[in-house]
Design brief:
The complex is a heterodimer of chains A (275) and B (260).
Chain A lengths: L9 E12 L2 E12 L3 E5 L6 H8 L7 E6 L2 E2 L5 H8 L2 E4 L11 H12 L4 H14 L15 H12 L6 E5 L7 H18 L2 E6 L2 H7 L2 E6 L2 E6 L1 H5 L4 H8 L15 H6 L6
Parallel strand pairs in A: 3-8, 3-9, 6-7, 7-8
Antiparallel strand pairs in A: 1-2, 1-4, 4-5, 9-10
Helix pairs in contact in A: 3-4, 3-5, 6-7
Chain B lengths: L1 H30 L1 H5 L2 H12 L3 H25 L6 H39 L2 H7 L4 H39 L4 H11 L2 H28 L5 H31 L3
Helix pairs in contact in B: 1-7, 3-7, 4-5, 4-7, 5-7, 5-8, 5-9, 5-10, 7-9, 9-10
The chains are: A alpha/beta (275), B mainly alpha (260).
């Protein structure tokens, strides 16, 4: 990992974090920094706990050890109302979009405004239309979530995430399952929102090409550790075989193709119980 | 033997852990009720989906239960020449027992299962997590309004069930079998006690509304967020609600009517 040092002007700082699920260690003493105004990507194979990391940053999960500092607040030491106040300044885009299915697009985007502000309905309408215009879906405001494609749902969720003008947005696998046009639209949106609104973005993804195209800094996670970090160029040239396996999509390497199991021949010849 | 004891210990531990989670969930839900009162629109929406949409099944079931009671009651009472007391028998059966119990069982099947499935799917599709990340407490915004709606709807639905049942009994008793209509109503009026019969029935239905809503909402909130998990949670809501309603009915009946 002989790459550039992690950024200093951090909005989010993860320090010596460890987290387990049952007996499985998800993170083992990892530290990451997310610079203000930049796009930082967390990449790694499926099951490395990328989404878990976002939930730890958002205070939805508690670490076994270590701290998460967001805008000088120790997330896991905050009282409930303090945490909720912090979350008003943190947008999150879920993989599924997480739109409220009993509301149409307009009401979904208006939801955080109605919950947290006392703005008159006319102003809420203006704000919602502005956010929808930013994601190119002003014309879809009367549609229900079940009438949206996957890409549209994520763009609506993005409009909702920026409704309260947050200081940062966390994107959970924004490109997964998207067609090339939707991917392109999301890549452009994430970049332009980050630049125009001065946001800090954290993208969790395993879509190498799209993420590397817009990220300022990349962390590669595997086996509960940070196995690589640096600018996209540095990551591309990284000598780490973990990083190379991931970036080149090699089916076998440090991350094994086979799930741990006993010897194949022994397994075939044994008279095991039925599953 | 050791394996059996281990399994027993594991199951007991799991049950008590779940009971602890359910109790904590109930406390959170109750603490969110004040915020629901400040936003009556949330409550009204839920009163519609939990209460008003249960109206039809309660009405039709109440009518048929009352008609069957009228028939069976007439056959038994006429053996003793006491068919004039049919109204008392029908009304007492309904307001004391069948109204609260059957309407609660129907409520668990119609509204309870719907609540569990709705909350479970909201969890599976990350809507609850999404709300938390938008700094909106899902307990206050989603759970408490539904709980309060269930609590308020249940006594009204039980009262509706009993009222329609009494009319059903009268339709069969007086309309088909020739019991004097005046005797049907006047015997009922003079023999039913407001406190002992009606108020006790209302208390029962409030208790059933409380536990059914609690079970339904908790099972949804605690469901494993997969299709199978939500399906199992929905089944558990109906089964556990039925057991709890019938068990509590016995206890409440023993406490309320024990001195009669």
């Amino acid at each position: 990992m002989a790459n550039s040092a992690p950024p200093k002007n951090s909005l989010v700082s993860v320090q010596n974090l460890s987290f387990s699920r049952g007996n499985k260690k998800i993170f083992d003493d990892i530290s990451l920094e997310f610079e203000r105004g930049k796009i930082t990507a967390i990449m790694g194979p499926s099951g490395t706990g990328k989404t878990t990391l976002l939930k730890l940053i958002g205070g939805q999960l508690f670490p076994e050890q270590g701290t998460v500092i967001v805008d000088d607040n120790n997330v896991h030491r905050l009282r409930r109302n303090e945490l909720y106040n912090l979350r008003k300044r943190m947008g999150m885009l879920f993989q599924s979009g997480a739109l409220l299915t009993d509301m149409n697009v307009f009401d979904n985007v208006a939801f955080p405004l109605r919950e947290h502000t006392h703005l008159p309905e006319s102003m809420i309408r203006t704000l919602v239309l502005m956010k929808l215009q930013a994601v190119g879906l002003r014309g879809a405001r009367q549609l229900m979530p079940n009438e949206l494609s996957g890409g549209m749902a994520r763009r609506i969720a993005l409009a909702r995430a920026i409704a309260l003008d947050p200081m940062m947005i966390m994107y959970d696998e924004p490109f997964t399952g998207q067609d090339p046009i939707s991917k392109g639209a999301l890549v452009q949106l994430i970049q332009s929102l980050n630049n125009i609104l001065g946001l800090t973005s954290i993208i969790v993804s395993h879509d190498v090409q799209e993420t590397a195209a817009i990220a300022d800094y990349i962390y590669v996670l595997s086996g509960g550790k940070v196995v690589g970090q640096g600018t996209p160029k540095e990551i591309e040239q990284s000598p780490s075989e973990w990083v190379q396996q991931f970036m080149n999509g090699a089916p076998d390497g440090p991350v094994h193709f086979h799930y741990p199991a006993k010897d194949y021949v022994d397994d075939l010849l044994s008279t095991g119980k039925r599953y | 033997m050791t394996e059996f004891l281990q399994q027993l210990g594991r199951n007991t531990h799991t049950s008590f852990t779940k009971l602890g989670r359910a109790s904590f969930f109930l406390l959170q839900t109750l603490s969110g009720i004040l915020s629901v009162l400040a936003r009556p629109r949330l409550l009204l929406n839920q009163l519609y989906s939990v209460g008003v949409l249960s109206f039809l099944i309660i009405t039709i079931s109440g009518l048929f239960v009352g008609m069957v009671l009228g028939l069976q009651g007439y056959y038994i009472l006429s053996d003793f020449g006491a068919e004039e007391t049919l109204g008392v028998m029908v009304a007492a059966s309904l307001v004391r027992e069948l109204g609260p119990v059957v309407s609660a069982l129907l409520f668990a099947g119609r509204a309870g299962s719907a609540l569990t499935a709705e909350i479970g799917l909201m969890k599976a599709t990350e809507q609850l997590s999404g709300m938390e990340m938008m700094a909106v407490d899902p307990i206050k915004r989603i759970i408490s309004p539904r709980f309060l709606a269930g609590l308020l709807s249940m006594p009204l639905l039980a009262a509706l069930f009993s009222a329609i049942g009494i009319i059903g009994g009268q339709l069969v008793g007086s309309g088909l079998l020739g019991v004097d209509e005046g005797a049907y109503w006047s015997q009922m009026q003079s023999n039913l006690d407001f406190k002992d019969d009606i108020i006790n029935g209302v208390i029962k239905s409030i208790v059933f509304g409380f536990v059914t809503s609690w079970i339904a909402l908790f099972e949804g909130y605690d469901a494993i967020p997969t299709s199978e998990g939500v399906s199992r949670a929905t089944t558990r809501t109906v089964v556990n609600s039925a057991f709890t309603i019938l068990g509590l009915d016995f206890i409440l009946t023993a406490l309320m009517f024990g001195d009669d």
